[in-house]
Amino acid sequence: MDPQMLAAVLEPEVYRLLDELEYSRAGELALAERLRRQGLGPEAATAVLAQAELRQEAEAKFGPFAADMLFTRPGLEQATRLPVAAHHAARMTAAGGQVIADLGCGIGADALAFAGLGASVEAVDADEVTAAIAAFNLRHLDTVTVSHARAEEYDLSRADALWLDPARRDTASGRASGASRLSDPEAFSPSLSWAFKAAAEVAGAGIKLGPALDHGLVPHGWEAQWVSHDGDVVEVALYHGAVCQRPGRSALIMRDGGTLAVHESEVPADDETGIGELGAYLFEPDGAIVRAGLVRALCAPLNVRRISAPIAYLTGDALPAGAAARAVRAWRIADVLPAGIKPLRRALIERGISRVVIKKRGADIAPDQVRRQLKLPKGGRSATLFFTRIGEQHAVLLADHVELGSAAEP
């Protein structure tokens, strides 16, 4: 979206039509024709339809708030989900953040949460349209100001806490959706080294980054918390100063209306601890646990064991219960099958299986290629195959998904 299109959407009559529009992708052509009959030019009609579509998609992140917000496609894709933003806000305000500098504020998700817990927020974004949209989205909050500026230009003496979300996509060709992610932290905007220096100038700071962050980049004495929400790993947040609750790596799992936190201090010192034979169930740890390197921390609380030292799959003889069960997805192992394509195909056909979901850890395969090579006949049931290793041996596990909390033992 360019400034002219945003200005068009913000015209009172155009915005009224946006609010009244009941969007459906299937009916988009008819809606466009209706908007033109109501006096909108082609560009304004296109902008209204784009915003209506984005609002509909944004309900997954913002719930009912989405109906009173504006978006860009990359801004929505990169925005913090509201429950995760609420977690950020709870940490920042509990640490005494009264004036929070939100640098790289995007469309305003975190600023919305900070203000909701009573903080004054000075939000800044380097992109003109994004800053204008953030100002619109936060217009009802009198404790929030929004500025169009680079993070490096902000006077940190104005705030007692810093929240920073560096731009991590290549914007050389503009802020288009689908821009490639940057792998060099010094190419972020602002750079990660600048972010670390800025954090040292305030009482407490949080830095939101992508979950693929190298553990070696986390400074000593900081907390690095990988976060998943409803099964999706959404970020790693680095916390410093008053906002750092416990230095080291941690994982926060937000699922089914509850949370589970796991810290690296819970990992056994012996890397060989908890490796054993395949049990009745296979457990797939939450992605935040895997990214944080905390798989071994699950063995004792879940009464499970690892199938191989480097493999992030667990196994056990019973289904786990309680809050710790949020850390895994469960699969009942039906059989161990041969790894070769021909014998595997024969085994699947014998079991009436014609469609397979393929998962892998520790196996050098391409799932789509394997699926094509199997050439399974149609008309059978579906199943899940795990290509992995048990100890040092390659194995293919045939398994059925089990819902934890509602499943009974067979």
From TrEMBL:
* One GO term of the biological process aspect: methylation
Tell me the Gene3D superfamilies matching this sequence. Answer: Vaccinia Virus protein VP39
Query: Which intervals hold domain THUMP-like?
Result: 328-399
What are the record keywords, sorted? Methyltransferase, Transferase
InterPro entries documented for this protein: SAM-dependent_MTases_sf, Thump-like
Q: Which domain of life is it from?
A: Bacteria
Q: What GO terms are given for molecular function?
A: methyltransferase activity
Q: What is this protein called?
A: SAM-dependent methyltransferase
